[in-house]
Amino acid sequence: MATKHYILLVPGFFGFANLGELLYFGHVRDYFVAEMKARGVDVEVVQVLTHPTGSIRTRAGDLLKSIEAHVKDDDCPIHLVGHSTGGLDARLFVSPGVLLGDDMDVERFARRVRTVVTLSTPHAGTPLASFFLGLFGQKLLQLLSLFTVYVLRFGRLPLSVAFRFGSLITRWDEQLGFRPTLLDQLFEQLLGDFSAERREELVRFLGDVGNDASLVPQLTPEGIDLFNASCQDRPGVRYGSVITQARPPSLRTRLGAGLDPYAQITHTVYAFLYGRTQRMPLTAIAPPTPAQTAALVEAYGALPGPQACDGIVPTRSQVYGRVLAAVRADHLDAIGHFDQPAHRPPHVDWLISGSGFRRLHFERLWRTVVDFILLQT
């Protein structure tokens, strides 16, 4: 009898796994199912529900609950695939001796984990987290979460909202602050386009983002330093990482975004986030191993510097274990949120970075991940 594999997909900072028909990992899940079937492998792919900005410990507990609910077969191998913060959740879950709660039997399942794959994960933290600690940053985090959901549902933001938001962030000044009523108005306008039932779901989701932001300080370089000191690799588990590096905002990337006003405005959002992510001190990042260095140099032509990032996480911060793939992509490209509407189902992008990442790159990346998961299993 063929061995069945369980693959748990752990979402990141914008931590919705499934809001109705909105799937964070929709394209990734479909690819896993099709590729494993083509290889004759019995697999069940589970999308984990997590608290969006709850602490890493809370989110690792959510991962355990998903495993308990879906993994019914004894001794079948488990594989954890985490995007962004989800990679940290996966690392903590398998860390020997971790305590997630008095009534949580983590070891029962952690000892069955064979691989941990992280994508665009801030293993050394991200300066953007420090920005989100501020009042403007907290409001902006909620709004960006709603933007992501809205674009996945409707394809793009209303142009009026995009214009107002782009104007707001280009005029924002760290010393002068902001007018919170502008962000509140944008919230109300976007929520009004959803059904009453979906609005209630979104209000609950965004309430979680606003009420429990324990995760944010943990993702600063200082917070992650403490996490890394206490989170140990589990013997026998293979760790691999997918690295993303996007192009710095420039005249070239603006031209690449095209003449569409919507694309230009969302590119402004990308430039705003990129500028706050590239302030990473190199001293906060552990030097890569020779094998990791070789993989990065082969992919990018040179070892990425401290300013290289994907718009959310510094590129060098993402390196952990074996480098499975290093691609030119922004933070959401690798999980299928890029601009290719002609594909069925369509790929939808709201963070217009000009990375050039497309379906061909997506399939090549995830084929490498499948190869790693099935290695020696």
TrEMBL record:
<feature type="transmembrane region" description="Helical">
    <location>
        <begin position="6"/>
        <end position="26"/>
    </location>
</feature>
<keyword id="KW-1133">Transmembrane helix</keyword>
<keyword id="KW-0472">Membrane</keyword>
<keyword id="KW-0812">Transmembrane</keyword>
<protein>
    <recommendedName>
        <fullName>Triacylglycerol lipase</fullName>
    </recommendedName>
</protein>
<dbReference type="InterPro" id="IPR029058">
    <property type="entry name" value="AB_hydrolase_fold"/>
</dbReference>
